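Exam revision sheet. Question 4 asks you to relate a sequence to its structure. Input first:
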Amino acid sequence: FESSSVDFYIMDIVTKKPISGETTVTVHPLVLLSVVDHYNRACKGTKNRAVGVLLGSWKSPTNLDIANSFAVPFEEDSKAKDVWFLDHDYLTNMFAMFRKVNAKERVVGWYHTGPKLRSNDIHINEMMQRFVPHPTLVVIDVRPDVAGLPTKAYVAVEEVHDDGTPTSKTFEHVSSQVGAEEVEEVGVEHLLRDITDLGFSGSLSHRVQQQLDSLKGLKTHLEEIEEYLKLVGEGKLPINHNIMYLLQDIFNMLPNVAGQELSGSVTNTTSDQMLVMYLASTIRATIALHNLIDNKIENMEAEKAEANKEKAKAAKEEAAEATSEADKASADK
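Answer key, structure tokens:
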């Protein structure tokens, strides 16, 4: 694989760096399915995490598209976090084979199943810089009971300290989303077709489930903010002024729920919604009662027709019996 390695280092290196606040990382469903399969095969039932490589390309100056991935042998010591092993030779050989199938996909970063960042992630990221100068780390949460987006993207940056100490490397969050092409959407719909508890897309139960998942995700983020503020208040974490500015912006954008105008508009909206629900319930009860009456009328008519049929049959039998008796009497005479 010498020629493949040379091609890898010369032609296949993605030099563009994701920027927090500007870049959006798009993760395809195929990557999520591959990561979940990797975790279930190798790490399910243990505290280990699955690690692999992400393949993709830049679709635009602000959109990093991650369309494929593959697993990499990885081991780490649970007690000594600095002791870990990632088979980079396997990575090089696997990418050489992937490149023969699709030359457009390049190594853009790596993933692990977290579910959170760990202390040795920065060292693994430095090793990945041998293959891509600015690797993107995507932490994929494979737990099925966790609501919200399962992906979180990060990029390594140099952190400058206010006290004049030497800079250190840390991770900075990058916006991420789940996106798919039309062919992938069709495949995902086929996979979800057998799931009965999702309901039809656009139905009331489906929309309520989406609202519930959104509220659960919001609750999770608020709990993370509360935990961070408690750690800062106890002095366990340093004050990050950028985070404080963002939290202040969040509080400034909160509506004034004590105002009469907002209270009146909320009341009117709620009343309109309740009126629609009342009318829908009344119409539903009326239709059900109408169907019940129609059903009773149909049953009565069916019973009446059956009784007439039985009467006609009995009369026919009596007539036949009388005719046979008359024929017998004439024969005897």
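Marking note for examiners. The longest strand covers residues 168-178.
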